[in-house]
Known about the structure:
The chain has helices spanning 48-76, 80-87, 128-136, 173-189, 261-264; strands at residues 34-37, 43-46, 104-110, 116-120, 143-146, 153-160, 166-171, 192-196, 202-205, 228-235, 238-246, 254-260.
Amino acid sequence: xxxxxxxxxxxxxxxxxxxxxxxxxxxxxxxxxxxxxxxxxxxxxxxxxxxxxxxxxxxxxxxxxxxxxxxxxxxxxxxxxxxxxxxxxxxxxxxxxxxxxxxxxxxxxxxxxxxxxxxxxxxxxxxxxxxxxxxxxxxxxxxxxxxxxxxxxxxxxxxxxxxxxxxxxxxxxxxxxxxxxxxxxxxxxxxxxxxxxxxxxxxxxxxxxxxxxxxxxxxxxxxxxxxxxxxxxxxxxxxxxxxxxxxxxxxxxxxxxxxxxxxxxxxxxx
Length: 270
């Protein structure tokens, strides 16, 4: 899901917002599966690099989500445009949040009564229901808001306003997680990368055939919190080696990295 709601940029904003760092994730290990051969000439594969890549992906996603939540509190909440939405007092001329440089697709201001006061930017009114879920979610970080009748999802988060009220936002998952983490992981593995929820249902992947697929259907076992496992699965009709890692955060997300078995194993030399 990648709605085009980043339509406003105001370089003259009196309180510019720092752009969230979007460095490309570099896998902790070069994707090189180690092949050993025994006396029976049967090749075995060390899949630990895949597990390590999945683990680094899970850590990177958690870091980016935490950064986005901190950014919402430190830079967006005190901005004059947002404060004006709470108070109803017009902001200074030119005091517009440069939403295009933030990691959110939409945000909303909620009063002390829990009702929406204003959706920001105004072009994103369609996200009002999801923002209500994000504003009421506990815990405030890491709540997955599944879009009804689709296989897409976004991630809701909120922060409290000291003077009363709450600011909620929906993360731009495509930019922060898909493009920022999963695509580089897939390139490093010369294969596929995906994100699944705590139950093992795939939420986000660069391969459309994996959308909403349970990991158990692929024959993969789920890792314990903070752990990684490896296995094999058929993806798009092709056998793959797979590394899975579950982060230690309460959301229990699972990151998977897969590479075709044909690219991982070289024929044994006579």
